[in-house]
Amino acid sequence: MDTSKSTGSVDALPRRVVFCVDVGLEMKETLGSSVDGGIQHSLLQTSSRLETTLFLIRRYIAMNQLIASSDQYAVVLLQDKAKWWVGFSNDLDEIEVALQGIECHEYKEIFGRKDVNDLLITIAGHSDLSDQRYFTQVILIYGRAQHLPLSMSKVHRRVIRDSQRFTMDVLFLHGPSDTRCKVIYETLQSFDSRTVPGWYFEFRPMARSSFTKAMAQLVAHPSQRSDRRSASQVLEPVNAPEEDMISLDSDAGQG
Q1: Which residues pair with 201 in a beta bridge?
Q2: Is the pTM of this model over 0.85?
Q3: How many whole angstroms separate alpha carbon 253 and alpha carbon 231?
Q4: Beta-bridge mates of residue 22
Q5: Under a CB-based contact definition with an 8 Å cutoff, are residues 170 and 158 in contact?
Q6: Nearest Cα to 190, choosing from 113, 114, 255?
Q7: Residue 138 pairs with which residues in a beta bridge?
Q8: Could you give the CA distance from residue 188 to residue 151 in angstroms, rounded to a whole number?
Q9: Which of 92, 87, 47 is nearest to 65 (CA)?
Q10: Is residue 250 domain-resident?
Q11: Within 10 Å of residue 242's Cβ, how many Cβ atoms?
């Protein structure tokens, strides 16, 4: 990947990483095993989207602790509305207990029909975004292919999303690509900011290896990584090979 286009907007401040995890019923759907198996063949077994997500969050934290032990982590659950699940901490035991308590549910109201501002308000309500000691990185794992998120308000875009010390990365898990998936992915991309751009990924049922690689990439501090727009990803036709859904080092499909 081209690393010559760093955002350069802020110093590499200690991070407060917020994992926003969809826990709707679609997250029970299966992600297939990886063709390469991964380290110690950890990707050879099939698992649900949620199980894979929690596994990769644990791996993300373990990797990041080796290079940035002062970073803190929080978890927000996407239920019928955004729910603050565990506050900022770098206590690995506390985080593990919180992760073990996460499971899928069916909700009366659908988060995807709610305004995305609910998520931003929840994060801002538990984070002092004016604190110049920290950079806030939101990692949104979204799995609702039947429900279109609504637009981000101009106020919340200006006050939260366009902050110099804030970014939001998005990983969209879904079934076979169709027009609705494309619209949802494009809507999620519309939440981006030119202040500190996020990285956007989407995955189909057999893209577990790509999901793993994307989460590993997100360990990089947002102020030091390349501009994702230089290698942006687009939805592929439905007959494209599942495991080739994401190209991490290619400029193909710029948009």
Answers
A1: 171
A2: no
A3: 8
A4: 78
A5: no
A6: 255
A7: 18, 168
A8: 9
A9: 92
A10: no
A11: 17
Q: Domain range for residue 186?
A: 20-244
Q: Which amino acid is at 217?
A: Q
The β-bridge partners of 48 are 30
Q: What is the mean pLDDT of each run of 10 residues along the chain (255 residues)?
A: 41 91 90 57 71 94 94 94 93 94 81 76 91 94 85 84 92 86 90 90 81 92 72 41 36 31
Tokens of 243: 């495991």
Total domain count, the chain: 1
Q: Is beta strand 72-78 parallel, antiparallel or unpaired with respect to 82-89?
A: antiparallel
Q: What is the DSSP secondary structure assignment for residue 227, as one 8-state letter?
A: P
* Tokens found for residue 80: 């019928």
pLDDT, position 157? 86
* The predicted structure's pLDDT at residue 249: 31
CATH number for the domain spanning 93: value is 3.40.50.410
Question: In this structure, how many other beta carbons lie within 10 angstroms of the beta carbon of residue 29?
Answer: 16
Q: Residue 39's pLDDT is what?
A: 52
| Alpha helices (runs of H) in the chain, residue ranges in sequence order | 49-67, 92-100, 117-126, 154-156, 179-189, 208-217
235 contacts 203 by C-beta, under 8 angstroms: no
Q: Residue 254: inside a domain, yes or no?
A: no
Residues in contact with 234: Cβ distance below 8 Å, sequence separation at least 6, in sequence order: 253, 255
Is 121 within the bounds of a domain?
Answer: yes
The identity of residue 248, as a single letter, is L
- Asked if residue 5 is part of any domain, the answer here is no
From 169, 190, 191, select the one nearest 60 (Cα to Cα). Answer: 169
